[in-house]
Fold:
Amino acid sequence: MNRTGKRKVLDLASSKADTNTSAQADAHPTTDPVRWRILSVLLITIFMTLVSVSIVNVALPSIRLGLDASEADLQWVLSGYALTFGVVLVAAGRAGDIMGRGGLFLIGVAIFTLASVAAGMAPNAEWLNAARFVQGVGSGLLNPQGLGMIQHYFRGDARGRAFGYFGTTVGLSVAVGPVLGGLLIQLGGPDIGWRLTFLVNVPFGVLAIALGLWWFPRPLIIRLPRTGSGLRSLDPVGAVLLGLAVLAVLFPFMEGRGGAALWLLLPAGFVLAWLWVRWEQRYVRLGLSPMVDLKIFSTQSYTNGITIMALYFMGVTSVWVLVALYVQEGDGKTALQSASFGIPAALLSAYAAHWAGSRVAYLGRKLVVAGLIIALFGLGLSILVVFLFEAGHLSIWWLMASLSLIGVAQGTVISPNQTLTLANVPLDYAGSSGAIMQTGQRIGTAVGIAVITAAVFATLAVSSWGTAMVVGLGLIAFVVVLALLVALKDLRDRKQQATPDKARPDRKTR
Structure:
């Protein structure tokens, strides 16, 4: 294939199948400059949604004062967004596969932007939480379309670079968010400042919509399935079953103060997930297009990848929660000082994601293995810093250095793992398959934060902040070790699959 041919983006699918007809609206080949413009729109939006998350963490004390919000209200400012985001992810991903990703992406951006305006103008905590629920819907709608569009428009080395830029954007947004939030709150004061942390999303949203309407391939339409096979291709029953299953699993971890009866939702969630699997299998037997192609779970690279991602987020996400608690409540630092502890890590994560993204095609899963080892090294050094700080031999600011290694790990793990996990997924299911991976991240994050912070506070009840911090970091390291074992298994599986291919020259390597 010549150079021009390699740089073209392939079509999603032929127009023969009913379920894919509408997806053809944005499935034609694009030239190299166009696909990078498309990526820039996706990255602007990802930056907006992630900055919004990190800013809210800083704004919570101001929201408490400005709206006279209770602790439960503040909990739902965080949890409400995460809950609706996780519930709609997979259904939104499948809808994009069928109805066209570009149009649904822009609808998601519009919903998120309007909800940001509503949140910034909220007269009370109830209004704010309702707006946060809607923000989660918008984010859940647009995120799987973004992953699906990267899968669609990028191949080979270019896909690795695209996911590398994606990871760079994640790192920069994490670094910028808390600092920007602190500045806006200082600029606007206790009454206006927290409102600016929501309203700052508006220019990003408007810019993303304008550029999307300008640059996304035409025709930029959403074909609504009609009654019959078209509507059934959306699999509404499957969407409801999976959404309820995710809700039942996430809710107890996000609202753990509801008593023991609340945890009965967990087994109910597993039952709903089993019913969803049976329903999807029935859909296939009837010759219909299921919400998720369950065959993808027989692809080892996919199942290993989503397991690594869920375990990684279950562990490492809690690092930043523990650090914020430790340096503020354990050492009396301000919220802005607390945010600065993660800045070097976030910047290094951004650089590492770009570096790893351009090399993932050659180094493969070895990058992820190396990143997890670096994460363990960073956790070990952080434990050492805590020990020495508690003994009076070291400043707590040395945590910035040890956490920087975790930032490098983050950039080396997340973006390459996304590329490798989705590499063999059929394009017809790119949106829903990416959404399954993101749902695993959300569940892993919720479970990890709930369990690890519970262990930390239980330790704090009988010991010091230093001991509690060591317990928390130790639990995180244990979860990262589990992720490393899965990554090593995947590396072994890939070598075993490659060996027979090399031995038989008549077969193409995978």
Residues 1-29, 504-510 have pLDDT under 50 and may be disordered. The chain has three domains: 12-222, 236-288, 293-493. The first helix runs from residue 3 to 7.
